[in-house]
Amino acid sequence: MTPSVLNRTIQAKVWKHHLTRNPRTRSRALWIVAALGAAQAPTLQAFQFGVVRIHEDAVAAFAEYIAAADAEFKRRLSGDSAFLWSTQDQARAEALADGKIVVDPTPVRDARETPGGLIHDWTGALLVPHADAERLVAVVSAYDTHADTYGPGVVRSRILERDGTRMRVAMRLLKRNVLTAVLETEHTVEFDRLDSQRWWGRAESTSIREVVRVGRPDESLRPPGHDRGFLWKMVVYWRFADMPEGAIVEHRSISLTRSPPKGLRWALRPVLDGLPRRSLANILGTTSDAALLR
Known about the structure:
- The chain has seven helices and twelve strands.
- By secondary structure, it is α+β, with helices and mostly antiparallel strands.
- It has two domains: 1-49; 51-293, START domain (Alpha-D-Glucose-1,6-Bisphosphate, Chain A, domain 4, 2-Layer Sandwich).
């Protein structure tokens, strides 16, 4: 997406957001949009092409956030908390029963500010009729075929090592957010059975490097944490449970990305915050389709 197209997209979203406000708010919104239209190109180009280095405080904040998420995950597995996130809320449970994909920010907010970064935390769930938990696990854990199942977001994927329930996998990812990036990534992954009706999984990135000059003879990788900041770190949690109507699959994704430039944060945040919802919904829908074909 070119800067001019991106600018028009932002302006449209800003206009829609402010259109129903009072006259004074609408007038102010129109002034802001006009100012953005006059001076936006250099700023957006800097956001598009600027390479930044991940801040140590952002890494520490993400590690602390994941430690808390791991503790919650263990409580769910041990029975100290409900195993399924989707059954803790009546509205979510009713939506699943109606065949809908449920995606919400967790635990309360969809993103948290860190020095130079944003922590995104979303959970999604889907009830897959006529499927069972083991079949869903088989789809999600088949990393050698992820490019076929989850493409084009997964360009290629392979299992590097396997040790019982644990794996080390490599994936090339295509990220289309406001802009587009190709990332070469590695992850440690584990899937295991909790009991006769429930499974769990956890995946954590160990290396994420942005690909430069994709597909050219001089293709190369930027150093980890020194790139455009589309995705710096990611941890994913899975839960699967057999139900009388089929099987429920839940997916929680926590990621660390760069912060938008301060001057455009108010405009870009609504755009960026909608991306995890669409991504999780797509992953869950694709997993369901692949499981029903097995």
